[in-house]
Design a protein that fits this description.
disordered N terminus; disordered C terminus; alpha+beta; six-stranded antiparallel sheet
């Protein structure tokens, strides 16, 4: 019955003592409560960490999450703001929480070198290695990404891979893009961009994440240099913790 009809029926039932009318409206009320409960459950689940989050994530399931908005204008494309004749990934903003292989004369502290597969590696072989390394990422490594990760787009034809990572406690989300291409000598090269959605600092998270992938790819003979205080001093100075001694209980800073 429509809600107004249900109210009228209840009114009549009070004066006439109609149990059947009361039962009808009670059933209607239970259905409405059930629908509302289902909607609430779905909303709560949507705020939880990814399925591959570390077990400790359950302790923070009720904490409000600051996921931020998904980035726009991502992917490989020709960009007016970039001094390049080939498609590039998005530039970093001014915050020290982003790295990109896209050339940036204004903010070179965000720029990292392109990674390279071993000479003679085909695009298909490079993609298979990259995809395997990404899909076997270990949430919680180096005390980061305890909320897990999810591959949002994987396009082997375009050589494009887009992954979202989530922090353990506050649900901050970071976006990582990989884009395979070919160099002039036909070697497989990898453009990449790792950036935080929310906040100004990242407490070293993006560097730790990229260094993990660099290490895994170097094990497959790729050229993928680490991000270090020597290569990016400004980033490390700005994101330095209050003390060099970080207790294990505070390893997950975000």
């Amino acid at each position: 019955l429509p809600d107004m009809a249900c109210i009228i029926t209840l009114f009549v039932a009070v004066f006439l003592g109609s149990c059947s009318a009361l039962n009808i409206c009670t059933t209607r009320r239970q259905q409405l409560i059930g629908i509302a409960s289902s909607s609430s459950t779905f909303w709560l689940r949507s705020t939880n960490a990814f399925d591959n989050a570390v077990p400790e994530a359950a302790k923070y399931a009720d904490r409000p999450k600051r996921k931020g908005n998904a980035p726009k204008d991502i992917g490989l494309r020709l960009r007016d703001e970039v001094d390049s004749d080939v498609p590039e990934l998005k530039l970093c903003a001014g915050s020290p929480n982003c790295f990109s292989t896209t050339p940036d004369e204004v903010a070179p502290e965000h720029v990292i070198s392109q990674w390279r597969a071993p000479k003679g590696t085909s695009q298909t072989e490079a993609w298979m290695t990259l995809y395997d390394v990404v899909k076997t990422y270990e949430p919680g490594q180096a005390g980061i990404d305890g909320g897990g990760f999810q591959i949002m787009e994987a396009n082997p034809e375009k050589g494009y891979l887009y992954v979202v990572f989530e922090s353990l406690k506050n649900g901050y989300r970071d976006d990582l893009e990989f884009a395979l291409g070919a160099s002039q000598d036909n070697s497989a090269i990898l453009r990449l961009r790792s950036s935080s959605r929310v906040g100004y600092l990242d407490f070293g998270v993006n560097a730790k994440r990229l260094n993990y992938f660099a290490s895994r790819l170097r094990a497959n003979d790729w050229t993928a240099p680490d991000i270090t205080p020597q290569s990016h001093p400004t980033y490390f100075i700005q994101n330095a913790p209050p003390s060099d001694q970080v207790a294990p209980s505070t390893a997950f800073r975000r």
